[in-house]
Amino acid sequence: MIIEDVISFLGKVPPFQFLDEPTLRAVASSASMEFYPKGAIILSQDGPPSKYLRVIQKGGVKVFIKSDEDEEIVIDYRSEGDSFGFLSLVGGDRSRANVLAVEDTVCYRIGRDAVMKLLDSNPSFTEYFLKSFLNKYIDKTYKEMHNRSLLYGGGDKLLFTTPVGELATKKVVTESQDISIEEAARIMASHKISSLVLLDIEGLPVGIVTDRDLREKVVARGRSVVDPIKDIMSIPLIRVEARDYCFEALLKMIRYNIHHLLVIDEGRLKGIVTNHDLMMLQGTSPISVARDIESQQTIEGLIPVSKKISRIIALLLKEGAKASNITRIITEINDRLVRKILEIAERKYGQPPVPYCWIVFGSEGRKEQTFKTDQDNAIIYDDPKTKEEEGAAGEYFTEFTIYIKDALVRCGFPLCPADYMASNPRWCQPIKVWKEYFTRWINTPTPDAILFSVIFFDFRPVHGDFNLAERLKNYLTQILKNQNVFLAHMANMTVRHRPPLGFFKTFVVEKSGEHKNELNLKLRGIGPLIDIIRLFSLEKGVTETSTLERLDALRDKHSVVMEFGDELEHAFEFITLLRIHHQFEQIEAGIEPDNFINPNKLSNLEKKTLKEACQLISKIQDLIIEQYRPGLVTE
């Protein structure tokens, strides 16, 4: 081993890069080199402590924990320049995780005495490990996995790792649906419970009554307490499986505006989970924001509530949520906010002359919105039957949509610079006009037509008569059949933006300007992935709009997704989460969020994962070029 090579390598790796030249030389002189073949276990969980701090010179390792149920929990993948073994080396008691070589790996080994000496004499070296390493890696995850039981839990836990069955109240009080309201209230009071599950003659759950039902349906309306309780019970019951994570229960509570869920285990009633249970689990809950939105009756009242939505992202990031979990919850809450604004507008202007459906597209249409983005919305309304009805509809929706546009701005949703909004008369039309638009764009795929198709074909209904949106979606599916020329134009657009990788797998970044040395995650990462999955969905008649839902629907329909579906899902999750973290850090620093990241500021693992995602996108784009080569056209 040549000492100068060791010095050169460690001098570029934190925290050794913080050492002065004599100290670095001393460390390099004491180091040794060791080779581990792929599959070798280097350290074993609860086994002997490491005698060395190992720095990976070449190759990579997986750091993971086995839970009490023998479940493998991956903590990290580490590659060139990363180190491992620090905790067990310093602690001297045991190894806290398994470390497995995932490829042939070469490490520099630095002995315990040399490391302890560095910790004693170099504050920057110590700070790196104590602040960065300890917080980021093993101990936090190790403690988290061994504190799965709620008896030992803390406030950060565990919306995304706790099964609902662990949280559910085990003893559910039940009664016959034939008892009176008075009897039900007495039972609830004596048991000090906020809900009562009601059974049919065969002992099966048929409804639920809550303290809110007693307040709103009995006391507030002066109903007789001798009436049967079944007259005011809520049906159908919304339920959740015991094995589902609490995140799923949270989504259902937000979606259906309820505070109690029955928990079912293999068809049997296991328990009940409440909004309060989830709030106790999290410390604070998105449900409270959804409830705040529901309780407001004015735009002025919605403005302060809307500002809380970004705070939910901070909570979800803290809990380690996947990108798709974050976007699903934010979508539910944003949808509720938009619906409330529309309901307020309907009260102000009265019911419209014809049924209508408010649709959204772009990231909102794909259920992939996080921090508030531009407004992307439109209106489909039923075809007027007379000239008078047509005139009344035009007059009504002109005022109505301007009011909505301004209300959304006040609640933090900026105007769309390209005016893709319902307040633009072009995008507020009867269904027959929308059908004409779609037919023209597909039959005459000019550059503008392809642009409109990319935007509007991701539409999703949010409020009003959903049947109108369903009719338009079915029409789109029908007219897309055998439209190879149109799909060739879409394919041409899909492969236009290539991922930011050079010939030698180095990142291609901006060479000058405001974003020098940065790359655009949206334009060259998430965007191409969305375009690829949209193209495949249009090919196969898939009607979902969410990228991940489209992927799931394509798994048994499209050959490319059959082969690369899991990889595409992981790539989308990773790049989206990387973007969310980047934008959240910018917002916290008071900077307007953007999509540009400096790859040199990413960890080795993040760089490696991003490169793999980019290589996957390039591979799929090459397959698209190969498939559509005969039909590819220039514009």
Description of the molecule:
This protein is an alpha+beta fold. It has 4 domains: 3-145, Jelly Rolls (Sandwich); 164-282, CBS-domain, CATH 3.10.580.10; 286-479, 2-Layer Sandwich (Beta Polymerase, domain 2); 488-628. Helices cover 49% and strands 15% of the residues. It contains 25 helices and 20 strands. It has a 4-stranded antiparallel beta sheet with strand order 1-8-3-6. A 4-stranded antiparallel beta sheet has the order 2-7-4-5. A 4-stranded mixed beta sheet has the order 17-16-15-18, with helices on both faces. Helix 10 (246-256) links the parallel strand 12 and strand 13 (260-265). The longest helix is centred in the C-terminal third of the chain and has 30 residues, at 559-588. The protein is globular.
Approximate shape: globular
Ranges with pLDDT <50 over ≥5 residues? 133-157, 630-635
CATH superfamily of the largest domain: Beta Polymerase, domain 2
With helices defined by DSSP (H or I, 4 residues minimum), what is the helix count? 25
**Helix coverage percent:** 40-55%
**Strand share of the residues?**
5-15%
- How would a crystallographer describe the biggest sheet? 4 strands, antiparallel
Instruction: Measure the end-to-end span.
Output: 59 Å
Q: How many domains would you count in the coordinates?
A: 4
The name CATH uses for the topology of the largest domain is Beta Polymerase, domain 2
Rg, rounded, reads 29 Å
Average pLDDT for all residues: 85
| CATH architecture level-2 label of the largest domain | 2-Layer Sandwich
Sheet with most strands: strand arrangement? 1-8-3-6
Number of strands: 20
The CATH class of the largest domain, by name, is Alpha Beta
Structural class: alpha+beta
